[in-house]
Amino acid sequence: MNLQTEQLIGHIQAGIEEKKGRDIVVADFSNIPEAICQAFVICTGNSPTHLQALTDSVEEFARKGAGAHAAGIAGLRNAQWVAMDYGTVIVHLFLQEARDFYDLEHLWADAAITEVASEY
Description:
Number of strands: 6
Number of helices: 3
CATH architecture: 2-Layer Sandwich
Mean pLDDT: 93
Oligomer: single chain
Helix content: 25-40%
Shape: globular
Structural class: alpha+beta
Largest sheet: 6 strands, mixed
Strand content: 25-35%
CATH topology: Beta Polymerase, domain 2
Number of domains: 1
Strand order of the largest sheet: 3-4-5-2-1-6
Order of helices and strands: HEEHEEEHE
CATH class: Alpha Beta
Radius of gyration: 13 Å
């Protein structure tokens, strides 16, 4: 993974942590040629309102810290699973039930998975 992508991930994580997103995981796909991006950042929120706050925070931290803007954001209407496309990084913000159902961390067996320690 290149330095620019690593820095973007750091800013995304900071945005998630700012709003107390839980169970943050980074799936590194940089060694998987057929992957659609270099990494997923996945976390869990407590409610649809919390997912909205997480989305806003990630947008702000990515923009201010890395000068990055999401090419697209999907899922805010139902706010069970919000996906934010930053090109090399796709952010997935889930409610627990949806995260358990889709289980994205385990869809890509070849990805290097890093669990991010948080205080909550």
